[in-house]
Amino acid sequence: MQNKSNRTILTVILIVLIVVTSYGAGVATASLVKFNPIRIALGYDKLGNAVGVSDPCPACLCPDGDGVTEGLECDPCPAIQFGADAGKCSEYVSSSTPRELQTLFKPFWESWNYLHRYYVDQPLDDVELMRGAIQGMLAATGDKHTSYMDPHTYEQANAEMEGSYTGIGAWVNTSGEYVEIVSPMKGSPAEEAGLKPKDIIIAVNGEDVTGTAGDIVLQSILGPAGEVVVLTIRRGDEIFDVSITRRVIEIPVVDYEMLENNIAYIALYTFNDKAVEQVSNALNELMAQNPKGLIFDLRDNGGGYLYAAIDISAMFIEDGVILYEEYGDGTRDTYRAEGDAIAPNIPMVVLINGGSASASEIVAGALQDHGRAKLIGEVSYGKGSVQSWIDLSDNQGGVRITIARWLTPDGNQIAEIGLTPDIEVPYTEADFEAGIDPQRDAAIEYFNK
């Protein structure tokens, strides 16, 4: 009898254990399934009305410094969702958003979620959305030189400074409303096709590029060697098409020679990583012939590395300021010549035009302010700002950010103004077609007076 009673008690205990264990397991399992009654009862989830009254919205809120919880996310947030459930809730932001910026970026993530939920053509390309967001953010600065480059464009932009690439052979500005020709490279398809500084590209292969980011337009201009690209050019009030056959472009650096009447001539086409060495070699060879003057041709030179501009300026300036970099807080960095000039005393003329930009303007401005050279030609381009090119993580391209402005030794700003030559000499279409160079002729005449 006693054994029977014991068996009954054990059976009851076993049944209770089974029921309790099953209930606990059910609660634990159910707590992992978002937006079920158990999770809601436990306070993990809540029913919100960001999209509809019945749509579930995770309750992951943390107070900010003022005790406000709306729109902020706990770290970590167990209920946060993206992917298929994106758009269900507008009350959270990405867990990668810094805590202090979560309220600010709430509208961005709301827009991101609504776009993924409602946009008519699905699926969306999240990488392109991300890149477009970066482009828009940088464009909002209002600075045409601050921009984003996707991986392909970033690679091409760096290749142009490293010696060769495939395209039409022109220095371009991609940061404005349209891609603008800064200058065609000497002997390039772009020069042979007659492109000129300030030409505006409004269509590529018949497709209007209005509203298209310049870096995207550039990709369609670049392409395999041997293929033809048709550019629609706006030059003043004139609009016309130009067909250009792409080819491998070897970036020219320096040409030099001794002209008649013992006048030395150096033409520098870019301030790349070979420029300092090649200008130094050319200058040493020419100076050994005791020239009476030097013509330094920077026309259609779209610029390049800052260090190259400093080093080349210092070849002609014995001592003194070459330029100032002025930052947004008013502080300045000063770059000076260090007293190791190769040709500090030779009379000089520097040729400039509307295609002379950036590093070219640094050199020309320093030589003009120090009284080392007369500038002959036309007003320069006016790009006197400093851009830092920064690689983005995981080979996602790069950003180009204006961090400072350049000032000449006399404190004159170059940006949007350019350099005014001491002797203005135009170079017309008729001159080009006739094969004459009135600007170079004026420089030669200056030394023959």
Give descriptors for this structure.
449 residues; alpha+beta; Pdz3 Domain; 4 domains; 6-stranded antiparallel sheet; 6-stranded mixed sheet; 21 strands; elongated
Descriptive report:
The chain is of the alpha+beta class and 449 residues long. The model is unreliable at 46-65 and 67-92 (pLDDT under 50). It has four domains: 1-30; 39-121, no CATH class; 163-250, Roll (Pdz3 Domain), CATH 2.30.42.10; 254-448, 2-enoyl-CoA Hydratase, Chain A, domain 1, CATH 3.90.226.10. It is elongated. Strands 5, 6, 7, 8, 9 and 10 form a six-stranded antiparallel sheet that branches. It has twelve helices and 21 strands. Strand 15 and strand 16 (332-338) form a beta hairpin.
User: How many domains, in number, for the residues?
Assistant: 4
What distance separates the N and C termini? 137 Å
Strand content: 15-25%
Low-confidence stretches: 46-65, 67-92
* CATH level-4 homologous superfamily of the largest domain: 2-enoyl-CoA Hydratase, Chain A, domain 1
User: What is the fold-level CATH name, i.e. the topology of the largest domain?
Assistant: 2-enoyl-CoA Hydratase, Chain A, domain 1
The count of strands amounts to 21
What is the alpha-carbon Rg in Å?
Answer: 33 Å
In round numbers, the mean pLDDT is 82
Morphology call:
elongated
The largest sheet is: 6 strands, antiparallel
CATH class of the largest domain: Alpha Beta
Summed up, the helix count is: 12
CATH architecture of the largest domain: Alpha-Beta Complex
